[in-house]
Amino acid sequence: MAAPEVTHLPNLPNDVEGLRQSIRDAVVRVVGEDPRQATERDWMEALAFAIRERMVERRLLTRRQFADEDVKRVYYLSMEYLIGRMLEANLRNMGILEPARQAMADLGVNLDTILDLEDDAALGNGGLGRLAACILESLATQGYPGYGYGIRYEFGMFRQEFEPYHQVEHPDNWLRYGNPWEFPRSDRKYPIHFYGHVVEHHHPRGETRYTWENGEEVLAMAYDYPTAGYGRRNVNNLRLWAAKATRDFDLRYFNEGDYIRAVADKAESETISMVLYPNDATAIGKELRLKQEYFFVSASLQDILDRHLALGYNLDALPDKVAIQLNDTHPAIAVAELMRLLVDCHELSWDRAWDLARRTFAYTNHTLMPEALETWPVELMERVLPRHMGIIYQINHDFLEQVRHRYPGDNDRLARLSIIDEQNGRRVRMAHLAVVGSHRVNGVAALHTQLLQETLFEDFYNLWPERFVNVTNGVTPRLWMIQANPALTELLGQRIGNDWQYDLDRLRALEPYAHDADLQKAFLDVKRANKVRLANLVRERTGVELNPDVMFDVQIKRIHEYKRQLLKLLHVVDLYRRIRAGEDVAPRVVLFGGKAAPGYARAKGIIQVINEVADIVNHDPAVGDRLKCVFFPNYEVSSASIIIPAADVSEQISTAGFEASGTGNMKLALNGALTIGTLDGANIEIRDAVGEESIFIFGMTADEVVEHRRNGPNPEAILAQQPNLAAAVEMIESGFFTCDDPGTHGDLGRYLRHEDPFFVIADYAAYTEACERADTLYADRTAWAEAAILNVARMGYFSIDRTVRDYANQIWDIIPEPVAPSRTNGAA
Ligand code: 7GP
């Protein structure tokens, strides 16, 4: 036992005086600057260091308690974490936002100015990555022992600019000034192998053993990001891996005297963690991507096993002490890697290892889009991960044996279920590997899970119905209400207290006041103030003036054909034409935001045409305030938290059957926007929660979409019957909105007239009718306020805390372990 003074934790004060002291000290001791000369950025760093020393203290207390209490832990494996800014969130969740504000003011610094200096941590593309960030925050908030693992990308999601209409991508160099939130762990490094070959060792009695030899080796080094729970002392950890060259990477070239080549090789091996692939819901068949996936999975599993053994557990206890969640198939190679570690490195028998692996893993699917389903050519897998290919063959062999016994002679079924797709040039189906290797598989909304069972995983569902569960997504109210919407938070506090911050169902207490005129007025005032805040940002970023007294109609999400930004755009063009023709239309601001994958030409074309239409509409003196159209550049977490509280209307208009869940729909509705939406993803559950009168549902259902496709859609026939729609399409294709080449949009016209794969044309009439219902309600301010208040009151189900409890109870079998106040050395 070490002496007490060695094991003692510092217990730093959290009052204004104590914080001021820490911050002032940090400017000198950490930043290395004279407080007399410190810049705002110096103060920001000093503040971050003062917070992080408090976070790490609680992190260590949390870890001690978890070890003492023998808890079961969940590990969330995700290629993406779309975190956003950390300073304000950490201050809030640590409970020191207000004292820190005062301490900074005492030092002559305005906290809000400082908060605005921070870059977003954008280590994700969209929904999947943001969900991962929400889940980590909730795990800590509810006191669950839950850890994230991922990649410390040097370059996150690209920065989007328009030049002047089309998207241009710029690198996101978010680490250029260093990062005060991370703890580099130079002692936490694991070797990661690629390439080489497998050698079999036959033992006369006993199983054949395999070694994976030669090949290349990279090191994965850990960087830790403490994650604080709100209103609790628990601080969990997000561990991100960075690639580092091994020391002897270069021996060969050094010996040959080729120094430059040797150093260049070092740089090459470190590219693994260099950049996030900016693709949302599309698989990237690149070797580097496979290496990224294996890199972080292998490092994470080695680390998990190390910790498990260091805590004194044996490997047979793995599923009792460890749950591992695979966030989509990106980490699915974990199934084979855990088998390799258990069988080759820890010398367990194959059957014992398989039983442990399957009981440890669970897999979340986030999309039904066929182009998102990851498959790797067998040839590539054999070259990059030869041992894993062998393991996958063995898993598949055992699995298909089982299927053969269950369905004798059904070879078609075997081919459909096989982990190896023999039809398309032999590929490994990662989703099949994930399903076979997991004890639970979940979709992210009720409809999505149902469709998984009926389509993508139908054969697996028939085989193992008990494996499939639904866990509807949620969002964290800490970021998406308390931080993003302080004015509404304040109003809620006055009316119903603050319990909803921990238990979002308590928002229901607002229901009885929905027709209270005072509340309605206060609610509309809050919304207007939020619209003014957004209008200021839009002016700053785009130069466009918005009138906060008209409806703000918002579609913010990745640009995708199935999400149907074109449907909204056709509505804008239709309104514009009618305004020019002297018609009286309800005024609105239409705001788009979102990025297109750099290689997704159609999505980039959609951005371009929106920008072109916006430019004409916004400058046409005949239009004035009746219509404004804005494409908000570089939509990210930090701008989302300004846009969402200002929205009156939330556009959730994907082709039914394509949006797995959506989470933007939840954030917007929680902030009092009314949804115009299809019966897709979680929109259905939102409708059930808020009631028909607080949502504008339209369009084909998922079944009708299938039916419509089967009948052979005919967009031209529909256009012939809808003169307004036809006129809008014509206006675009005729080149009305393009200044240079009028032919640019001919292709878009052809696409809509002859292909229309996501039924924009077929749903248009129903869509505009839903928009008109919204306009009518909006014109009645009292009725609108009532509907919007009820909407807020009934969104409790969509808290990420409920989502995380569903995972904990149905999948992980873990319980909360709140850190006891006594453990904090008496700290308040
Ligand atoms: C998204 C889904 O498109 C969205 O509907 C859902 O709300 C979100 O995941 C969280 O579950 N999917 C992705 O972002 C994605 O990249 C491909 O999926 C793997």
Automatic annotation (TrEMBL):
InterPro entries: Glycg_phsphrylas, Glyco_trans_35, Pyridoxal_P_attach_site. It is an enzyme of class 2 (transferase). The modification N6-(pyridoxal phosphate)lysine is found at K667. One of its GO terms (molecular function) is pyridoxal phosphate binding. GO terms for biological process: glycogen catabolic process. The keyword Repressor does not apply. The keyword Glycosyltransferase applies. Its cofactor is pyridoxal 5'-phosphate. GO terms for cellular component: cytoplasm. Keywords: Allosteric enzyme, Carbohydrate metabolism, Glycosyltransferase, Pyridoxal phosphate, Transferase. It catalyses: [(1->4)-alpha-D-glucosyl](n) + phosphate = [(1->4)-alpha-D-glucosyl](n-1) + alpha-D-glucose 1-phosphate. Its EC number is 2.4.1.1. Allosteric enzyme that catalyzes the rate-limiting step in glycogen catabolism, the phosphorolytic cleavage of glycogen to produce glucose-1-phosphate, and plays a central role in maintaining cellular and organismal glucose homeostasis. This is Alpha-1,4 glucan phosphorylase. It comes from Thioalkalivibrio versutus.
